[in-house]
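wait is this the right file?? whatever heres the structure
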């Protein structure tokens, strides 16, 4: 851990914030913040302007309770029996700005303003996921043994706390999360982040007036018709942004209202006379035009939203598939085909703007990549164990299934299977040796019996006739299988490897060496 002597608000402080991944940003990075979206954090980090980023963090992320924090600190010091000092520290690119840290570094202090809902959770011993990443990163960076997480208004009456202890699972999640965030930041293409837009003002149609007395006395209907046709012609029928959709939805409502006003005008005219054909036909024409426009535009908006949503989902699926393909290409002998597909549709559910949809899906994608990387890390460790037994790889044709086991089970499966194979080989070799000994003994017994049953032959005098005794039976050559088993057992390899070696033996050269040795 490195401690930094920085004054809040100085250029050095702002640059430090920009170039480090702070504990207060960890929840947003993991997509757990209820204040800031992950894409917003990416966007602001990408700006590269230290003051802009620092001001944004101050406004959107940090708890605005420094005065309350100062009141609470002596109360916490009294409780823990030690002094607390505000400190900014880092471990590599990760950083933490502690509300307080003891001189021995064993206890850190993090304060949040009094909030009834948060206080109730803390009083029950629960730190919500919106705050846990910050506490765990403080522990990760400082090496402290606990974080005293306090919610208060600076008084004893309204103060609750819980001690947060180091959690290795959270540490790994935070490290992996920031690693993926850095990759996304390196590949980030900035896009404008805007609030949900208000629809643009819609061109107003003139108020329709009709006066009749057996005939049309006065009306602005022709002007109204021209205005309506101009308005309809100006409608954007290719919405693609949140602003476009807001305008289109407002236009649908406007057309519906205009239709109602036209019907009201027609009814008013009919109340004054029995039949004014041209007036009625014009009103019907404009009314039908507005109705058709409204219905078409409503369908178009729904269709375009589905098209854009499908495009966002497809791009996320493609990105995840490519990420998995890269991992599988590196692993080579196995693939991560058992990982579940990310639920992009679930992540995008009930998102009413393109910006919130893209943020939810990109956060889901990032978390899926993090999970895949974590699994790949475990698989690499198992493959390292697997490579230690290279001579016995032939025993693990089901490696794809075995690799999904926990490490201890995986290691046990490897050693058990190898031991069983070696034991089987030893038993086969022992049986072969016993059979060879038994066969040799049987042949020796037969030879002794034959020799003992023969009577001595007297040599006639005076000539001597040489006797030709029966040749001694030669010892049988071991079978091919016995030779292969003997080589395999001696070198502790599979029979296939022993056969491969025997096929490459240079018998001529071996014979020459043997002859030269005599």
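ok assuming it is, sequence goes like this
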């Amino acid at each position: 851990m490195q401690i930094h002597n920085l004054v809040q608000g100085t250029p050095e402080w702002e640059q430090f914030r920009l170039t480090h991944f702070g504990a207060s940003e960890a929840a947003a990075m993991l997509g757990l913040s209820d204040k800031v979206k992950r894409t917003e954090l990416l966007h602001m980090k990408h700006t590269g302007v230290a003051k802009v980023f620092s001001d944004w963090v101050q406004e959107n992320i940090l708890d605005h309770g420094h005065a309350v924090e100062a009141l609470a600190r002596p109360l916490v010091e009294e409780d823990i029996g030690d002094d607390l000092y505000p400190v900014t520290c880092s471990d590599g690119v990760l950083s933490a700005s502690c509300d307080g840290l003891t001189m021995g570094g064993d206890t850190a202090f993090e304060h949040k303003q009094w909030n009834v809902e948060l206080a109730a959770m803390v009083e029950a011993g629960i730190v919500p996921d919106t705050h846990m990443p910050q506490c765990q990163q403080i522990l990760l960076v400082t090496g402290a043994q606990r974080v005293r997480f306090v919610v208060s208004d600076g008084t004893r009456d309204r103060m609750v706390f819980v001690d947060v202890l180091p959690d290795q699972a959270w540490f790994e999640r935070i490290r992996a999360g920031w690693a993926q965030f850095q990759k996304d930041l390196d590949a980030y293409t900035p896009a404008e982040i805007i609030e949900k837009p208000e629809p643009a003002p819609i061109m107003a149609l003139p108020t329709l007036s009709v006066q009749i007395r057996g005939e049309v006395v006065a009306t602005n209907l022709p002007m109204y018709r021209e205005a309506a046709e101009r308005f309809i012609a100006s409608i954007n029928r290719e919405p693609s942004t949140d602003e476009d959709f807001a305008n289109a939805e407002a236009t649908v409502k406007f057309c519906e209202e205009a239709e109602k006003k036209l019907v009201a005008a027609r009814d008013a005219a009919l109340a004054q006379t029995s039949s004014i054909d041209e007036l009625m036909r014009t009103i019907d024409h404009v009314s039908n035009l507005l109705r058709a426009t409204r219905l078409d535009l409503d369908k178009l908006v729904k269709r375009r939203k589905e098209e854009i949503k499908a495009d966002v989902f497809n791009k996320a699926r493609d990105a995840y598939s490519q990420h998995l393909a890269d991992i599988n290409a590196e692993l080579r002998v196995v693939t991560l085909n058992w990982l579940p597909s990310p639920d992009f549709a679930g992540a995008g559910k009930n998102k009413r703007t393109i910006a919130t949809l893209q943020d939810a899906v990109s956060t889901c994608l990032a978390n899926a990549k993090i999970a895949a990387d974590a699994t790949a890390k475990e698989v690499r460790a198992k493959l390292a164990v697997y490579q230690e037994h290279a001579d016995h790889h032939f025993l693990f044709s089901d490696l794809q299934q075995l690799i999904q086991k926990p490490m201890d089970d995986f290691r046990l499966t490897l050693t058990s299977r190898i031991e069983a194979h070696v034991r089987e080989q030893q038993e086969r070799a022992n049986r072969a040796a016993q059979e060879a000994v038994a066969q040799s003994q049987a042949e020796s017994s037969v030879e002794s019996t034959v020799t003992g049953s023969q009577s001595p032959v007297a040599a006639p005098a005076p000539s001597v006739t040489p006797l030709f005794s029966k040749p001694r039976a030669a010892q049988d050559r071991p079978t091919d299988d016995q030779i292969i088993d003997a080589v395999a057992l001696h070198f502790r390899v599979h029979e296939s490897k022993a056969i491969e070696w025997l096929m490459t033996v240079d018998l001529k050269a071996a014979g020459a060496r043997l002859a030269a040795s005599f």
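The chain has a mean pLDDT of 83. so i think its the right one actually
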